């Protein structure tokens, strides 16, 4: 299957091409800035080493995107999503987790208003 053409990095003034929104040089810089300036400091504590272990175990047990599977598509999962966010009282229990591909995770996050501050009424 043909791949999408690379597009310019979204970082201001960067001429690099990338498969994602930002090139390798700017991806970590943007994430670091987001974690430092926009994300609640308490959430940084919640996503430490123990979360990474839980995430790795969950994704190993559920390697396909659960949202895509509902629609008959087989897509490799890249993210683990909290159904009820930690900020709203959810936990890291397996029944509160869901393995998702990046596009499904982004869509669900935007619709819930978790990262970009918009919510779907």
Topology, element by element:
Blueprint: E1 7-8, E2 17-18, H1 24-38, H2 41-46, H3 49-61, H4 66-70, E3 79-82, E4 97-100, H5 102-112
Antiparallel strand pairs: 1-2, 3-4
Low-confidence stretches: 117-121
* Strands, total number: 4
Query: In this structure, how is the largest beta sheet organized?
Result: 2 strands, antiparallel
Shape: globular
Average per-residue pLDDT, rounded, comes to: 82
Strand order in the largest sheet: 1-2
Backbone CA Rg: 16 Å
Helix content: 40-55%
User: How far is the N terminus from the C terminus?
Assistant: 37 Å
Alpha-beta classification: mainly alpha
Proportion of strand residues:
5-15%
Give the ordered list of helices and strands. Answer: EEHHHHEEH
Walk me through this protein's architecture.
The chain is mainly alpha-helical and 121 residues long. The chain contains 5 helices and 4 strands; from the N terminus they run E-E-H-H-H-H-E-E-H. Strand 1 (7-8) and strand 2 (17-18) form a beta hairpin. It is globular, with a radius of gyration of 16 Å. The chain starts with 6 loop residues before the first strand and ends in a 9-residue tail after the last helix. The model is unreliable at 117-121 (pLDDT under 50).
């Amino acid at each position: 299957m043909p791949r999408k053409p690379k597009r310019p990095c979204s970082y201001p003034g960067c001429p690099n091409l990338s498969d994602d929104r930002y090139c390798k040089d700017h991806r970590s810089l943007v994430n670091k800035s987001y974690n430092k300036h926009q994300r609640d400091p308490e959430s940084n504590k919640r996503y430490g080493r123990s979360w990474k272990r839980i995430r790795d175990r969950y994704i190993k047990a559920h390697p396909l995107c659960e949202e895509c599977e509902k629609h008959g598509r087989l897509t490799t999962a890249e993210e683990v999503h909290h159904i009820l966010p930690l900020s709203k009282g959810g936990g890291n229990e397996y029944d509160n987790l869901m393995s998702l591909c990046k596009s499904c995770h982004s869509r669900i996050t935007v619709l819930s208003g978790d990262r970009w501050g918009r919510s779907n009424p």
